[in-house]
Amino acid sequence: MKKLFAKWNSISLVNRIIVGIVIGVILALVAPKSLAGISILGTLFISALKAVAPILVFVLVIAAISGHKNGQQTNMKSILGLYALATFMAGAVAVIAAKIFPSTLHLKESAEEITPPSDIWEVLQNILLNITTNPVTAIMNANYLGILAWAILLGVALRMASDTTKTVISNLSDAVSKIVQWVINLAPFGIIGVVFDAVAKNGLSALLDYGHLIIVLVGTMLFVALVVNPLIVFIYTRRNPYPLTLLTLKESGITAFFTRSSAANIPVNMKLCEKLNLDKDTYAVSVPLGATINMGGAAVTISVLSLAAAHTLGIEVDIPTAILLMVLSAVSAAGASGVTGGSLLLIPLACSLFGIPADVAMQVIAVGMIIGVVQDSCETALNSSTDVLFTATAEYAKERKEGNVSTKAL
User: Fold this and answer.
1) CA-CA distance, 399 to 216, in Å (whole number)?
2) Which of 3, 163, 209, 364 is deepest in the core (most CB within 10 A)?
3) Contact 394, 79 (CB under 8 A)
């Protein structure tokens, strides 16, 4: 049995996940009803990721900051700049794509039970309230802004603690990281359940009516992932961006595509940063922060769906309004929660720029839910993979300025 486990673990995690995808699809097509219980594997896997992620972030950030030595440099300023630039660029590309390839929606369904934010100030207010929440409540509700705020404050306060205390914190961080490794090793089995459930319940019939919209959304996200983001990486690092880009898409994007949650994918990204030998003091903060504010995929969704609604209603969008939408989608996307479908709640806010009434905007949310099996999966894959991409980019850019040559991503 030990040899079997050793052989299984020797196979690349991505290859094991691909095997899980194939098995899940086959089982869903062969016996979707009699094997319905298999979907519990996906539910358990995602629940385990969501359970361990808040503790992991809390402990890692405290350990990184409390153990930080004076004079030791991090790349957080560069990373925050990259997050902001990439999110704005994603929104800009989405606006252009939606104008060139306008989509028409079939506004039939309603989503009135959902209460989205009414304006940008409510989004900012929610962000501030999340930051100042009770730390226990923040961990229980996976409120990563609150978790980060408390972890940073405790980390700064503990910088004056004794070496023994810091060693305990470091050991606790290592222990939680080990648990995360155990959970991630179960990903192939969880993916079987996730894929089985998606194929058995949704199939492709619900997506046919919105084929054009899905193509615009997914095409825009692919353009951002394979053209815009690599261009940003090249400008900062002056090196071939594609080895790093494709690596992050493969090892982070695939799992994020199926979990559909940036928050749940935090442990996967932490593991990938460790594999790339990145600075732990930096990625312990940048990865969970990215899961909260680095939302290029969300900016694409907000822009494309709101412009599709405007086109459906015959509303002409002028250039100044389009530019305002780029800015609004970038800022709003940073306020989207790191959970499934978080960006959809911000669509009414963008629609308000065009004078689209709330009841119509709620129907646009319903359309987003229908195509969510594709749209939200691609959005999360783009969001989450770029957390690692830009963390690594900032470090490589720093090495280039210092005259060091890094081969970490090659």
Assistant:
1) 37
2) 364
3) yes
pLDDT digits (tens, 9 = 90+) for 91-150: 889 989 988 888 887 665 444 444 545 555 665 676 678 778 888 888 887 776 788 788
Separation of alpha carbons 76 and 65, rounded Å:
12
Query: What pTM, to 2 d.p., does this model score?
Result: 0.73
- Spatial CA neighbour of 312 closest among 352, 348, 347, 356: 356
Write b or e for each residue in 192-206: b if 16 or more Cβ atoms lie within 10 A of its Cβ, otherwise e.
bbbbbbbbbeeeeee
What 200-207 contacts at long range (C-beta under 8 Å, 24+ apart), as own/partner pairs, is: 200/28, 200/32, 200/33, 200/36, 200/39, 202/373, 206/370, 206/371, 206/373, 207/370, 207/371, 207/373, 207/374
d(CA 283, CA 405): 20
Cα distances from 400 to residues 95, 146, 232, 404, in angstroms, run: 34, 34, 15, 6
Q: What is the tens place of the pLDDT at every residue in 337-382?
A: 544 555 676 777 777 777 777 677 777 877 777 677 788 889 889 9
Provide the pLDDT for residue 110: 47
- Inter-residue contact 218 to 378 (CB < 8 Å): yes
SS3 letters across 179-235: HHHHHHHCHHHHHHHHHHHHHHHHCCHHHHHHHHHHHHHHHHHHHHHHHHHHHHHHH
Q: Which two tokens stand for residue 323?
A: 């530019």
> Is residue 7's pLDDT more than 50?
yes
What the block records as the tokens of 349 is 């806010």
Q: What's the pLDDT score for residue 111?
A: 45
CB-CB neighbours of 102 under 10 Å: 15
Radius of gyration of the chain (CA): 21
- 363, 108 in Cβ contact below 8 A? yes
Q: What pLDDT is attached to residue 113?
A: 47
Q: Which two tokens stand for residue 246?
A: 């494709």
Gap between the Cα atoms of 117 and 119, Å rounded: 6
Among residues 276, 280, 250, 252, the alpha carbon closest in space to that of 266 is found at: 252
pLDDT at 114: 47
Give the residue ranges of DSSP H helices in 38-143: 39-66, 76-100, 120-131, 135-140
Residue 101, token pair as written in the block: 């390839």
* Alpha-carbon span 302 to 282, nearest angstrom: 30
